């Protein structure tokens, strides 16, 4: 019975069962490795558990498809007809998600065509690059740490005291807006600060609040600039 099962394929080129199992298991390992990397490095609001699961299942399916095709042109055309009926309309919100999908497809194709060395080297390379991009925060633009809004009751010519204080706590301080109203004295100022030490925000706010002429002080922590 077991021998019949192992020789059950009646195709022109019978499948090698141990090689098939090895290819499917390797595809699963590569897909799960990329899924773990995605879970660790993902940021944003578009995280989906089903997408993570698909990263594991998809390379196994692709590897199985490549084993079924096995250089058979008739089977390839039949498979194209099946895929024409079953259409996938899932829209990926993050462009990096597309890279993950393509990665698991290529790894699945490598495992399905029995190019196991290529699959292992490719998986290690892709994982290394993805982790390196995540660890170095490549592509992010971090220009400011803190947004500072305050009302300055003294003349603008006396802003030297405030400027010195901000320079002591920040590498770069930029006055983003300056607004004066005729209804009351003083000027509303808004600063963008790149801090020398982001752990000393409370000290900065306390010193600014104690400065003569400062009132209505508010602050907002700035985040990395990102595309929405």
Keyphrases for this structure?
228 residues, alpha+beta, Alpha-Beta Plaits, 4-stranded antiparallel β-sheet, 15% strand
In short:
The protein has 228 residues and is α+β, with helices and mostly antiparallel strands. The chain is built from eight helices and four strands. It has helices at residues 2-6, 17-41, 49-69, 73-85, 95-112, 116-135, 160-169, 201-210, and strands at 146-152, 170-180, 187-195, 214-221.
Tell me the total number of β-strands.
4
- What's the SSE pattern? HHHHHHEHEEHE
Beta-strand percentage?
15-25%
* Coarse shape: rod-shaped
Number of domains: 2
Rounded average pLDDT: 77
Task: Assign a percent range to the helix content.
Answer: 40-55%
Measured on Cα atoms, how large is the radius of gyration?
30 Å
Largest sheet: 4 strands, antiparallel
Low-confidence stretches: 224-228
The helix tally amounts to: 8
Could you explain how this protein is built, in words?
The chain has helices at residues 2-6, 17-41, 49-69, 73-85, 95-112, 116-135, 160-169, 201-210; strands spanning 146-152, 170-180, 187-195, 214-221. The protein is of the alpha+beta class and 228 residues long. It folds into 2 domains: 2-135, no CATH class; 146-221, 2-Layer Sandwich (Alpha-Beta Plaits). The chain has a 4-stranded antiparallel beta sheet. The longest helix is centred in the N-terminal third of the chain and has 25 residues, at 17-41. The model is unreliable at 224-228 (pLDDT under 50).
């Amino acid at each position: 019975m077991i021998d019949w099962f192992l020789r059950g394929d009646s195709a022109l080129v019978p499948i090698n069962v141990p090689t098939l199992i090895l290819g499917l298991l390797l595809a699963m390992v590569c897909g799960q490795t990329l899924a773990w990397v995605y879970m660790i490095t993902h940021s944003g609001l578009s995280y989906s558990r089903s997408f993570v699961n698909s990263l594991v299942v998809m390379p196994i399916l692709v590897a199985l498809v490549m084993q079924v095709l096995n250089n058979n042109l008739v089977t390839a055309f039949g498979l194209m007809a099946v895929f024409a009926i079953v259409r996938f309309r899932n829209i990926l919100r993050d462009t990096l998600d597309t890279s993950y999908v393509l990665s698991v497809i290529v790894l699945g194709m490598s495992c399905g065509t029995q190019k196991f060395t290529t699959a292992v080297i490719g998986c290690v390379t892709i994982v290394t690059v993805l982790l390196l991009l995540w660890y170095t925060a490549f592509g992010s633009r971090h220009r400011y740490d803190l947004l500072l809004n305050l009302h300055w009751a003294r003349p603008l010519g006396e802003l030297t005291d405030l400027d010195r204080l901000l320079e002591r706590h920040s590498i770069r301080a930029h006055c983003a807006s300056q607004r004066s109203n005729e209804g009351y004295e003083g000027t509303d100022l808004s600063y963008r600060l790149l801090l020398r030490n982001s752990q000393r925000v409370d000290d900065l706010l306390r010193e600014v609040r104690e400065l003569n002429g400062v009132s209505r002080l508010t602050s907002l922590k700035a985040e990395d600039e990102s595309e929405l």
